[in-house]
Amino acid sequence: MAAAQMQLKDPDPRFVEVCRMMSPDDANFHGNVHGGVILKMIEQAGVIISTRHCNSQRESEGEEAHVPCYTALVRVERTDFLQPMFIGEVAQLHAEITHTAHHSLEVQVKVWAEDIMKGTKRLTNRATLWYLPMAVDPPHKIQTVPKMTYVNKETEEAGWSRYRAQKADRERKGLGGAPSLDLSMLERMRESQENGLMEHTVAYAQSSLIHLAGVSDCNAVNYVYGGVTMKFMDEVAGITAAKYCKTNVVTASMDTVNFHKPIKRGSVMYFTGRPTFTSAHSMEIEVFVDTEALREGITKKERAVHAFFTFVSLSQPERKVLPIPCLQVQTDGEASRFFEGKMRYQARKRKRTFSEGSSVD
User: Fold this and answer.
1) Strand positions, DSSP E, 198-239
2) Which contiguous run of DSSP H or E holds residue 243?
3) How confident is the model at residue 35 (pLDDT cuts 50, 70, 90)?
């Protein structure tokens, strides 16, 4: 009787908690949960809290005046995989809105791995995502974001500082700017791949996946979730790294990702990964996502996403980091990209050293 009289409380609008136990389907042969699985869960938590917030003015606006909207992922800041997660552990995600601008909002997500047998928990990931609210009807019209309540003025100013930094970075790189490999070059590289290629070269390790965007990949308005795209990106990057190293490889980080254009249901998605740089104990994989909207009669491929992943090689069963063979560059373009990759590698090291030195948690 008492249970029947219990009142359900409304969820706290400031954050959302998501939990899921990791199964063999989520991991590689060595029990390490795929980085793409974690990225997909991170984006799912982000889209829940951001969509909830952007539709939170229903009562004040009135049901008739309120324009229902969904949120579209437009940017993910650099994401580090601090520790591995394994089969049987429970992934716990905490997603919280940390800043709202006029037409966008920032969501920060933390991920923990819990061993429910031992009662232990450790932080495995931190991520920052940016979303745009889009009207369901009329479709694609960007909506205004309800302003969040900040703890203090300093917190609000810190949020605006992060907003200005990511906006300047997008403008500097160009949201739809041409990456270092165009589609015609990709086709020529695919055609040139034959048996007997020399190991530890770009042509030898390059890998690709093709996926038809189906109903389960999409949101309520038939656009592919950003988390689904990132999962496949990590998968093709992992295949590339495994072909190159021939060992157990795991995702160490994903650099900042800008989503150039939305991907519609029914589109054919082409994922291509290639090595660009190797250090003594890590390798950088460049990933491209190109799409064809075949249902609309469009057969021209368009660039949707472009990102860099970093992988490390681990021994079994000790899980110690192994040396990685040096990438053998064969063209001027590969040499140029190797140098650019080295610059990114050094920048990551500097940023990681600074973060570790200034971290308080």
Assistant:
1) 207-212
2) helix 226-245
3) very high
Sign for the pseudo-dihedral over CA of 6, 7, 8, 12: negative
Tell whether the torsion through CA atoms of 316, 87, 129 and 74 is positive or negative: positive
- Smallest Cα–Cα separation from 251: which of 36, 86, 69, 27? 36
Contact 95, 46 (CB under 8 A): yes
- Please give the structure tokens belonging to residue 241: 């790294």
Among the listed residues 107, 223, 225, the one whose alpha carbon sits nearest the alpha carbon of residue 166: 107
- Quick check: helix, strand or coil at residue 188? helix
**Cα→Cα distances 104→88, 154, 163, 334, Å:** 36, 20, 9, 37
CA dihedral 293→298→299→300, nearest 10 degrees, is: -90
Between these two residues, 356 and 311, which has the higher pLDDT value? Answer: 311
CA-nearest of 261, 293, 270 to 208 is 270
∠ CA 313-356-286, nearest 5°, is: 40
Pick the closest to residue 183 from 261, 297, 300, 264 (CA basis).
300
Kindly list the catalytic residues. Answer: 28, 234
Q: Give the start-end residues of each E strand in the chain.
A: 15-21, 69-76, 79-81, 90-100, 105-115, 120-135, 207-212, 248-254, 257-259, 268-278, 283-292, 302-314
Q: How far apart are CA 119 and CA 75, in angstroms?
A: 35
* Percentage helix, strand, coil for the chain under 3-state DSSP, each rounded to 5: 35, 30, 35
Q: Which residue has the tokens 């015609």?
A: 184
What would the pLDDT profile of 299-338 be if each residue is shown by its tens digit? 788 999 999 999 999 988 888 999 999 999 999 999 999 9
Rounded-to-integer distance, Cα 322 and Cα 225, Å = 34
Nearest to 162 by CA among 100, 111, 110, 85: 100
Query: What single-letter DSSP state applies at residue 52?
Result: H
- Report the C-alpha gap between 227 and 221 in whole angstroms: 16
